[in-house]
Structure formats: C-alpha cells, structure tokens
Design brief:
12 helices, sequence-specific DNA binding, 5-stranded mixed beta sheet, alpha+beta, 11 strands
Length: about 300
C-alpha cells in the first residue's frame, strides 16, 4: 500500500511560506545529516543524494518535507513523504527510511518537530470537547499540508535568528503548533493516543514499558495486565498501531540499542548482545544481519564511514 496524499493546486500563501521555509532550512543545513537547533523540539535534515534504506526509531513528532522525497516503511506500509504534505508519528515506532530524491543543488530537506505528549494531554479538555473518539490506527500517517500548521512553524524557524525573542515567544508558538495538529486532519489520531483510558493510550503505555524493559523476558499476559487489556486485545491494537506484535517490537528495540552501543564503541558484539537481552551471541548476529543488512561489525564500520563522508 502506498500512503501518499494527493495534492491539487496549493494556495499562493502556502506556496510562498513553504518557499521561505525551504530557504531558511537550507541556510541552517550547510552539510548533510541531522542538524539540531536552538529550540530543542526542532531539528532539520539534509541529504544531497539518494540513499540506501536505513533503520531508525521514529519518536512522536511532526515531519515536513520541503524539498526532495523520502520513503518510510512501517511493517508493510509504505509512505512517500514529499513537499506539500506533513507526516505525524503518534508513538515510538521502528521504521526503514530512505531518501528517494536529492541532488546537491536540490537536496532533500526536512523539518522535524518532536511532540510533547504530556502537553498534548493537558490540552485535550479544551480541544476535544464533544468530539467523537476514533479507533486506534497506524502510528504514522501523511496528510496534505495546511496553512494553519505551516505558519507557526515558519515563525518558529524565523526566531532562530533572534535568541531573546525565541526564549519568550517559542513556548507560545509551540502551543499553537500542537493546537493546529489537534484540530487538523491528524487530530483524531493524536487524541486517541493521548486520551487516558483509550485503547490507543493503553498501547502507548505498553510501548513505554517495552522501551524501559526491552532487555527483560517478555510475557504478553503480564504486559497486558499492566495496561488493563486482555492479551488478545493488546495484540490486536498493538499491531494496528505499530504494524508488528509486541514481541517483534521488543526485538527491534533490542537490535537498535545494540547498534547504538556498538556505534558508540562501548562494548564488543558479545557484550552488546548480552546487554540488550540476548542469551546467544550467534542468534543476535543472525537477527542483526537480517534486520540491518550486514553483520554487526561490518554494519557499524559502514555507518562510521558514512558519518565521515557526510561530515
């Protein structure tokens, strides 16, 4: 399935603001890779050429593609993220991401805005009064970009050149961004995840527990009990949101953490496999190779070479 919003002609104001934002982000990203900004929730990404698929953990966040295109795989679902669309990730999900279209003169440029789910929950009583609650849906979705959402993001990026103004106005603009998300096309998805007692919120609690205890044996009935769900209901709704079972999710968490440990040079392969919960280093190496496309040491060496080349 190819999840890609269709766009007709965009309003002139939206095109103008998107072009200004593209110019600003290009200035803030002189080299390839991820660039942090003075506003902690905001970061930029640049790639000057198409790339190979890379595995990553996406946190709850808002993503804008300003130039070029990226492909994101969640399970068997394919999302093509291009300009004039925005992507919302409502829970932590492991994905495969690939830059599809980029050149040095027309790079792939993206903006990421990390979502503060605690603040979203605080806003729910004012925003959701009288709105029906939908069923849990996949943790990633694309929608056509709306001017009401682009405008505060553009104002926030402009403030990166004015630190004093950013400190005073940034919190207000962030509140506006969250409000626009909750009242826009992706609002129902975030409401389902954030509302206490909803099935989406119960799954998000299960995900939070797995992220803290990924190195421990997983017993589905115990996890279901922790989040007040039956085992069958947890399986069903967990797969609906993450496109995988809790056990598959835990395995990917373990592999991502082991990769981080190896890349940081904190331990050898056998120690990394043990730290993330594997009893057999050989099983760990097989599953690592299957997931990342190369054995641990070769994969880490490849990543380090890529960092040097882009840096």
């Amino acid at each position: 399935m190819n999840s890609k919003p269709s766009h007709q002609s965009e309003p002139a104001r939206l095109v103008q603001d998107r072009e200004e934002l593209t110019t600003l982000i290009e200035r803030w990203t002189p080299t390839e890779g991820v660039h942090a900004t003075a506003w902690p929730a905001l970061s930029f990404f640049r790639a000057d050429s198409p790339g190979v698929p890379t595995c990553a953990m996406y946190e709850p966040g808002l993503g804008l593609a300003l130039m070029g295109a990226k492909q994101i795989l969640l399970g068997q679902q394919v999302f093509v993220h291009e300009p004039a669309s925005y992507l919302v990730t409502s829970v932590d999900v492991p994905v495969s991401s690939q830059v599809l279209r980029a050149t040095p003169t027309e790079p792939c440029l993206c903006l990421t805005f990390r979502l503060d789910m605690a603040r979203i929950r605080e806003m729910l009583p004012e925003v959701t009064a009288g709105r029906p609650m939908g069923a849990p849906t996949t943790g990633i979705s694309l929608s056509p970009l709306e001017d009401g959402l682009l405008d505060p993001l553009l104002r926030l990026v402009r403030l990166l050149d004015a630190p004093r103004d950013l400190a005073m106005l940034g919190p207000l603009i962030e509140h506006e961004v969250l409000y626009r998300l909750l009242t826009g096309g992706q609002g129902a998805r975030l409401v389902q995840i954030a509302t206490s007692g909803s099935q989406g919120h119960q799954v998000s609690r299960a995900i939070e527990w797995l992220r803290r205890h990924y190195d421990e044996p997983l017993r589905i009935d115990e996890l279901a009990g922790r989040v007040n769900m039956s085992s069958s209901s947890l399986h069903h709704h967990f797969r609906a949101i993450t496109a995988m079972s809790p056990l598959q999710y835990q395995k990917q968490l373990r592999l991502h953490e082991a990769r981080r440990l190896l890349l940081a040079g904190q331990c050898d392969v056998a120690t990394a496999s043990h730290r993330v919960g594997y009893e057999s280093p050989s099983q760990f190496s097989r599953e690592y190779s299957r997931h990342f496309g190369a054995p641990p040491l070769r994969d880490v060496s490849r990543l380090r070479l890529a960092e040097v080349a882009s840096g």
